[in-house]
Amino acid sequence: MIDFAIYALTLVAIWSVMAISLNIQFGMTGLVNFGQILPFAIGAYAAAIGVQYDLPWWVGAVAGLVAAPIAGILVILPAGRSSQDYWALITLGAGEIFRLTMLNVPSIAGGADGVTVSRLPDRTLAAGLAVALCVVAYAVAQQIGNGPFGRMLRVIREDETLAATLGRSPMSFRMRVTVVSWAMAGVAGVLYAHVIGYVAPTSFLVTDTFLVWTAVILGGPGRNIGVVIGAAILILMSVSTRFLAEWSGLPSDLVANLRLAVFGLILVLMFLFRPAGLFPETKRVQNVDGL
Amino acid sequence: MKRNLLNAAVFAAAAIVAQPGALLAADTIPVGVIANLTGQDVNTSLQMARGVELAADEINAAGGIDGKMIELIVEDSEYKAQEALTAATKLYQVNQVPAVIMFGGSSLMIPVGELAQQEGKVLINTSSSSAKLGDYPGALFSILPLDNIVGKELGQYVYDKGARSIATIVPNNTFGTGIADAAGAAFEAAGGKIVRKVAYTEGQPDYRADVQAIIAAEPDALVGVGYGDDSRTVFKNARELGFDAPWYAAYPSIFAVENEEWMNGKLSGVDNGGYANDGGAAVLAAYKAKWPDEDEPLAHIYYGYDAMMVLAKAIEAGGVESAEIAAALPSVVESYVGATGKIVWDDRGQRIDPPLDIIEYKGGKFETVGTID
């Protein structure tokens, strides 16, 4: 039983890293990234391709860490001068282009067949790595959010023109935010591949991006602890409702649908009564000289 | 305070997951079932789960196994690898089931197969036909035959029917491309020509562009596989665009026919030959008795039924532990003739040499019109 709790903790930690990554982009900077699953997928595929060519696991991990932020730069360059609507569409499209390429070009990573990745044999080790990654991501996000860099990100989020009048280049800040946050998501993808043990295009759908968005909105955009708790609630609700379903004694197909309905209902109620999230961002007053 | 909240959430989850294992009575044998009860291709998956249920009912009505009743624990995979793995981890670790019967594509079956091997557990596959499934001998056993066997027979059948040029249309997944490749290779080896290959993305609301590409290639016949809502949409698009060539398929009985009148006499192909035997007829009768208001069942009900039956026989012959089941399974299937006919496994536990029939869609239902040796 404890193994199952450890497995759930691993998932919570991995998806928390994804939520922190999106929080830096959206919560702090205002970047509407609808392709958040892309760096995650790049990390996972880097691990898978490394395994395919019999390379040590760390080669795939380093490749994922490097490839994800590079992809981020390539994606945001054409979106640099665009408004947030276009930013959302470009990132959404980039994620789908990558997934469909992996699906339709089997020579890269098996196409629809996917690739088997060596699974971490010890669940405790997997959980330890995931929690360690989450702690590092959280510390980095806190460092960004609480320093002058983070304050300027919030200025860009609230008023891009104001940031420019202060002599800062919003594009430069966005670029740095993308590099850091996509690297986080890339490493989370590497770890995910070694936890699940299999990488296929079906694991990186648009719906997975919106799982991360739900965690951020639920927890409270702009608050790192909030988005971690948002991710934890989502994963633990998904896991725990399996047991509620088992206890109910109702037909399995009915219960499966009710489980998702209850899940959705709780989220709707949350958004109705706590629209700023469980842990809303606190208002900060700063001296502009400190930027 | 923040750390306390996180800890509280983790411990709350641990407290929740601690309970259900204790609910299983000592006089039952827990068996796990993983099916995509939500998400994609729900109906076919549900049919498999019902097949398992019918077999469990039959076993329990006959007094169970050594007096112990089969208790099914059904989990939803949502047709996602992560959720399938979560379901399997729960079943193996919390519910302590020795074996799981599963419906799902290879993207779900392979990670769960890997987990089963790692945990020393048993997984019985009822729906996936990837060649990679053979990589988990002693842990993963298949009731569905491999793609290359059925695909090869389909290719030869199409050539024998007089077609000399074909187009293929399949869902872009391991099952679809596996069948298309095997059927295409056999058809070309016989002297035929493939003029167009289409592998469509599942879950789309419309496949007109794909169907138009096929019509433009002017094939003598169309060859493919499909299931669920996607197959219904492909048929609808083909009918509306005036496509009129014969349609040959692997497992035509799992298609969702969209328009009975239009499809009448147009669809035929190679299917499992076991359904028409006494075992298949008995399962069909049991299904209609238990769910009288439901439509005709899909073929997956027979695969689910056989999976539960061979598992029960292995428990009876070997014991309730996973290792005992894995050791007993190959020998019990040798004497088992079930709803999908005789099951022959290779040394990896993958089904080979299945009984195959030719079936045609006539008068609103499929009829067996021949048998393949």
Provide a brief overview of the structure:
The complex is a heterodimer of chains A (291) and B (373). Chain A is mainly α and 291 residues long. Chain A is built from twelve helices and two strands; from the N terminus they run αααααβααααβααα.
Name the descriptors.
A: 291 residues; mainly alpha; ABC transporter involved in vitamin B12 uptake, BtuC; two-stranded antiparallel ribbon; 2 strands; 75% helix; 1% strand; B: 373 residues; alpha/beta; Rossmann fold; 2 domains; 5-stranded parallel sheet; 13 helices; 21% strand; disordered N terminus
How would you portray this structure in words?
The complex is a heterodimer of chains A (291) and B (373). Chain A has 291 residues and is an all-alpha fold. Chain A is 75% helix and 1% strand. Chain A has helices at 2-28, 37-52, 57-76, 84-104, 106-109, 123-146, 148-158, 160-165, 170-196, 206-219, 224-248, 252-273, and strands spanning 115-116, 198-199. In chain A, strands 1-2 form a two-stranded antiparallel sheet. The longest helix of chain A has 27 residues, at 2-28. The N and C termini of chain A lie far apart (50 Å). The mean pLDDT of chain A is 88. Chain B contains 13 helices and 16 strands. With 373 residues, chain B is α/β, with parallel strands linked by helices. Chain B has helices at residues 2-17, 20-23, 42-61, 81-94, 106-119, 147-160, 174-190, 208-217, 228-240, 260-263, 278-290, 300-318, 322-334; strands spanning 28-35, 69-76, 99-102, 122-125, 140-142, 165-171, 193-200, 221-224, 247-250, 267-272, 337-338, 341-342, 344-345, 351-352, 356-362, 365-372. The longest helix of chain B has 20 residues, at 42-61. Chains A and B meet through α1, α4, α11 and α12 of A and α1, α2, α3, β2 and α4 of B. Chain B: Keywords: Amino-acid transport, Signal, Transport.
Unreliable segments of chain B (pLDDT under 50, ≥5 consecutive)? 1-24
CATH architecture of the largest domain in chain B: 3-Layer(aba) Sandwich
Rg of Cα set of chain B: 21 Å
Q: What structural category characterises the helix and strand content of chain A?
A: mainly alpha
Q: Secondary-structure element order of chain B, as H and E?
A: HHEHEHEHEEHEHEHEHEHEHHHEEEEEE
What does the radius of gyration of chain A come to?
19 Å
Q: What is the level 1 CATH name of the domain at 2-204 in chain A?
A: Mainly Alpha
Described by its quaternary structure, the protein is heterodimer
Q: The CATH topology of the largest domain in chain B is what?
A: Rossmann fold
The beta-strand count of chain B equals 16
Mean pLDDT of chain A: 88
- Strand order in space, largest sheet of chain B: 7-6-8-9-10-15-16
Biggest interface between chains? A-B, 46 and 57 residues
Organism (chain B): Bauldia litoralis
InterPro entries (chain B): BCAA_transport, Leu-bd, Peripla_BP_I
Family (chain B): Belongs to the leucine-binding protein family.
Keywords (chain B): Amino-acid transport, Signal, Transport
